[in-house]
Design a protein that fits this description.
Elements: H1 18-28, E1 31-33, H2 51-54, H3 71-83, E2 87-91, H4 94-106, E3 112-116, H5 121-130, E4 133-137, E5 141-142, E6 147-148, H6 153-162, E7 168-174, H7 185-195, E8 198-202, E9 226-229, H8 231-234, E10 242-246, H9 254-264, H10 271-282, H11 286-304, E11 309-311, E12 322-327, H12 332-341, E13 344-346, E14 348-350, E15 353-357, H13 364-379, H14 404-409, E16 414-416, E17 429-431, E18 436-439, H15 447-455, E19 460-462
Helix pairs in contact: 3-10, 4-5, 4-9, 6-7, 11-13
The structure holds pyridoxal-5'-phosphate.
The site of pyridoxal-5'-phosphate has 15 residues, from helix 4.
Length: about 475
C-alpha cells in the first residue's frame, strides 16, 4: 500500500526515472507514518548494506522455501514459537498470497465462504481463483468517519442461520482493519466453532499486537483457525514479507498450504525478504516496542491538545499504532497534501480521515515533526473546503447474480461506465488503500455503484 493514492494523480514527468522519483521523496520526507514499518531505519535489515551479495537463490545449503529442511525451516519454527502457533509458514509474496493460499485450502471443505464487504482485494481475487461463492456480510459502519469498523455479531449469526442449507467452508475477517478497528474475535471464533466452519483472520495490520502490550487483541489468543500477518506493515521486515499461523490443529497442515502458495507465487523467492524475516524475529524485544509506544503516547497527547484536529477514538477496541485524524475545516485529501508538503508522509486516506501508521522503526522526532506540521496547519488557516468526501455512506451490499469466477471467465466486453447501469460486472474495482471492493465480478452495477466508480474517474468497465 502507499500514500501515493492520497491526492489527485501526480503530474507525470516522463523524463523522471523511478530512482529519481524515489530519491526525491526520500529527500523531502522528514517523518514516515507509512508502511513499511522499518521506516528505512538503518538499525534494521543490516544485510542491506551488502544487499547485492545477499540477493541469492536456492544454492547448496540455502534451503528451499517450498520444501524447507534447514535454515528456512528454522525461521518458520522460530516464528511459530515466538507467536505461539501450532505451525507457521512464511511468504515472500505478501499476506495477499497467504490469504489466497488459505482460501484455496478452505475451498476443499465447502462451496461458499462468508466475506465481509470490507475485505482486502486478495480475498476477492481468491474467490475468482477458487470458485468459492461469497455470502456477503456487512460490518458495522462509523458514520462520522465513513468507514467500516468491526464484525457485527448479530448480523453474523443471522447470516449463518439464513444460510443453514449452504455448504459454508468458512469466514474470513479483517482485524485490525486499515483504521485499526479490532473485532471481538473470541466470540466470532466461538460462533464459527458452533457452526463447524473455519475462521481465517486477516491480521495483516496486527503483527505487532502480541508484543506492544495489546496481546489480548490478537486473533492468536483466540480459537481462530488461521491467522495471517503482513510482517512488513508494522514490524521491521522488508515489503512483501508475510507469514501464516495455523492456530489450532487442523485436518490440513503447512505442507498443504505451501502447495497452494506455490500455485500462485514466484518460483524465485527473495532471499533478501527471507533474511529480513529472520532478522525481524530478533527485533521483537521489549525495548523496541516500548520506544514506539512512547512515541504513540506523545502523539496522542499532542493530538488531544489540538482543537482543530479530531482523533479517531471509537467505543470498541482499536490498535494503538493506527492513528486516524481529520481536520475540522478541510477535507482529508487537503490535510494529507498539507502534511506531505511539510515532509510528513501519511499512509493513506481512510474513510474521511488521514491515517498515520507507526511501526517498529518510528522515531522520536516523528512526533515532534508532526506536532510542528499540525501547528503550522492551524496557523495557515486553510479555507473550509466544500468538497464532500467520496463514498460518505456504506457501500450497498453486492447483488451477486453469478459467482466471481463465472463472471471473470465469461465472455466479456469493455463498455463506458456511463452505460454500465444494471450490467453484471466482470471485474473487481477496489480503492487502495484500504483495498476494499467497490464492485466485484458477478455483481450488478447499480446506480450507486456506477456513481462511485465514476467518482474514481474510471471511464471504462468490463461487463
Ligand atoms: C487488510 C489487508 N489485508 C491484506 C493486505 C495484503 O498485504 P500484503 O501487502 O502483505 O500483501 C493488506 C495490504 O495493505 C491489507 O490492508
Amino acid at each position: 500500500m502507499s500514500s501515493l493514492s492520497l491526492t489527485k494523480p501526480p503530474v507525470i514527468n516522463k523524463t523522471n526515472s523511478l530512482i529519481q522519483a524515489c530519491t526525491k521523496v526520500i529527500k523531502q520526507k522528514s517523518a514516515s507514518f507509512h508502511i513499511p514499518g522499518h521506516k528505512s531505519h538503518k538499525q534494521f535489515n543490516h544485510f542491506l548494506s551488502n544487499g547485492q551479495s545477499y540477493d541469492l537463490t536456492e544454492l547448496v545449503n540455502l534451503d528451499d522455501l517450498y520444501h524447507p529442511q534447514s535454515t528456512i525451516k528454522k525461521i518458520e519454527t522460530d516464528l511459530s514459537s515466538k507467536f505461539g502457533s501450532v505451525e507457521s509458514i512464511i511468504s515472500t509474496n505478501g499476506a495477499s498470497s497467504l490469504i489466497i493460499a488459505s482460501l484455496i485450502e478452505i475451498a476443499k471443505f465447502g462451496t461458499r465462504v462468508i466475506v465481509p464487504v470490507n475485505s482486502h482485494v486478495s480475498v476477492i481475487n481468491a474467490l475468482i481463483l477458487t470458485g468459492l461463492e461469497p455470502i456477503w456480510l456487512e460490518p458495522d459502519y462509523d458514520e462520522n468517519w465513513n468507514l467500516y469498523t468491526t464484525i457485527n455479531i448479530t448480523k453474523l449469526k443471522n447470516t449463518l442461520s439464513n444460510n443453514k442449507n449452504e455448504q459454508i467452508a468458512g469466514l474470513i475477517i479483517t482485524s485490525p482493519t486499515y483504521a485499526g478497528d479490532v473485532s471481538n474475535i473470541s466470540q466470532i471464533a466461538q460462533i464459527c466453532q458452533e457452526a463447524n466452519i473455519y475462521l481465517i483472520v486477516d491480521e495483516s495490520h496486527g503483527s505487532h499486537l502480541l508484543f506492544n502490550g495489546q496481546e489480548s487483541l490478537s486473533a492468536l489468543k483466540t480459537t481462530a483457525h488461521i491467522v495471517i500477518h503482513s510482517l512488513h506493515k508494522t514490524l521491521s521486515a522488508l515489503t512483501q514479507s508475510a507469514c501464516l499461523h495455523i492456530n489450532q490443529k487442523l485436518p490440513f497442515n503447512t505442507n498443504d498450504l505451501k502447495n497452494n502458495l506455490k500455485l500462485i507465487s514466484t518460483s524465485s523467492p527473495s532471499y533478501l525478504i527471507m533474511l529480513s524475516i529472520e532478522e525481524s524475529l530478533k527485533n521483537l524485544n521489549s525495548e523496541n516496542f516500548i520506544s514506539v509506544n512512547n512515541i504513540q503516547t506523545e502523539i496522542n497527547q499532542n493530538l488531544a491538545s489540538l482543537n482543530h484536529i479530531y482523533h479517531y477514538k471509537p467505543n470498541h477496541q482499536i490498535d494503538s499504532w493506527h492513528i486516524l485524524i481529520k481536520s475540522n475545516s478541510i477535507t482529508s485529501d487537503k490535510l494529507a497534501s498539507f502534511l506531505i508538503n511539510q515532509g510528513i508522509y501519511p499512509e493513506g486516506l481512510i474513510g474521511n480521515g488521514v491515517l498515520l501508521m507507526l511501526g517498529l522503526g518510528s522515531q522520536n522526532n516523528d512526533s515532534k515533526f508532526l506536532r510542528k506540521a499540525l501547528n503550522a496547519f492551524k496557523e495557515s488557516k486553510p479555507q473550509t473546503n466544500s468538497v464532500s468526501p467520496k463514498f460518505n455512506k456504506p457501500l450497498p451490499l453486492f447483488n451477486q447474480v453469478m459467482s466471481p469466477r463465472q463472471a471473470y471467465f465469461a465472455k466479456t466486453k469493455t463498455i463506458k461506465v456511463a452505460d454500465s447501469l444494471n450490467k453484471i460486472s466482470a471485474q473487481n474495482i477496489s480503492i487502495c488503500p484500504p483495498g476494499t471492493p467497490l464492485i466485484v465480478p458477478g455483481a450488478i452495477i447499480t446506480q450507486e455503484i456506477k456513481n462511485n466508480i465514476k467518482d474514481l474517474s474510471i471511464k471504462i468497465v468490463n461487463v
